[in-house]
Amino acid sequence: MQKMDKVNKFWSPLYDYANILALLFIAIGLFYSRALLSMGMIGLLLNAVLTFSTKQLWVDYKKDVIIYLMTFFFLIYLVSGFYSESFGAWFEIIKMKVPFLALPFVLLSNNARAKHVRVFIIVFCAILFYSTLPIIIEFISDIEGVLLKYQRGHTLKTPIGHVRYSLLLSVGVFVSTHFALKFYEDKKLLLSLGAVLFLTHLFLFTHLLAVRSGLVCMYVGLFVYSILYVIKNKYWRAFFIGIIIMLGFLFFAPKAFPTLENKIGYTMYGFGKLKNNEIGQYSDSKRLLSIKVGWELFKQNPIFGVGAGDLVPSVQDMYSQMYSDVAVESRLLPHNQFLRVVNSVGIIGLIAFLSFFIYPLFNKDIIRNPLLAAFIFSALASFCVEGTIENQIGTAYFIVFYFTFYKNTSFRLI
């Protein structure tokens, strides 16, 4: 214990800088570097271990039921290795799930101070704004070429996958909405105006990018945020006026944003092909078919799933049984996070996943934290059409913002 105290005393002066640096690595890594993202996550964990005694770590770990739920979720994936035939694939998935075991404890402990999180949010928003500029330049410099890409189901070039990038845009919209209202309530009108301008930029840019799942997630989150904010502050008249304006905007948006209009046209074309059983290379038809395959796989293995390591071969076998004429390169894993979980680890794993995911919604303080509610429902919309947390960027997006906003309920971080 005395040795640990000496380590803590030595580390203390560097603590703020180390924690902020790790969070900055995460903010940059979300957009531009998987290596920095990993370094940031590892840095947060090491910093927590070096600056607290084992006793304090255990106190922090056991003080919130949500950590138990997430630990249980990780352990279910760990145990699935006993009935997964492909050990290598199972091990890769376990590495992807390790943040669910480690990072929640770090982000919920006293180690995550409010000022550190504020710096992270500000830097994240700055990088998010910067990342939109090359995309806007690409659109302006070759409008006809870009529109042709959208007619073929492609999108503007984004720093990471366009789906995950659109989710980060949604987070930026929620945060800027939160800041705009908070600054207005505090009579900081210039700061509120700045947040409104940033919100407007991200809102319009998201329509220009025209990633359908990202647009749905943004609108779902904004609607939930508005509902809770209105309930808390009794601004019902403003709410209904806002709804009317939003519906009007949605009606005219396809004409104002040709990329969105072309994307809608491509979507309808893909649905028509699926109706005629023409799968081909159409992204929408392949995604819907993957969900059908995932559902059938669930019905065959409902309790424990097929094992995290055997998901890919099991899905391929199901395609061979149901849709043998579909080319191998068109056989996608289920584009639904809940099916990914239940196919891998069964109903038990899905219950664990849903438990920690929606747990905050049953907290009476959720009315004071519309930012968290907006994020949860936005992620829920994404989970319905994507395997959102099945890669490094998606995992970081979910865990970092989920727990940042979750802690905001008690500590008013932002």
Could you characterize the architecture of this molecule?
- The protein has helices at 2-11, 15-32, 34-51, 54-62, 65-79, 87-108, 114-141, 143-151, 162-185, 189-209, 212-233, 236-256, 258-275, 283-300, 311-322, 337-358, 370-385, 392-411.
- The protein is globular, with a radius of gyration of 22 Å.
- Helix 9 (162-185) packs parallel to helix 11.
- It has 414 residues and is mainly α.
- It has 18 helices and no strands.
- The mean pLDDT is 85.
Brief write-up:
The protein contains 18 helices and no strands. With 414 residues, it is mainly α.
Mean pLDDT: 85
* Number of E-type strands: 0
Sheet bearing the most strands, described?
A: none
Taking pLDDT < 50 over at least 5 consecutive residues as the criterion, the unreliable ranges are none
Structural shape: globular
Q: In percent terms, what proportion of residues is strand?
A: under 5%
What is the succession of H and E elements?
Answer: HHHHHHHHHHHHHHHHHH
Number of helices: 18
Structural class: mainly alpha
Helix content: over 70%
- Evaluate the radius of gyration: 22 Å
| Separation, N- and C-terminal Cα atoms | 35 Å
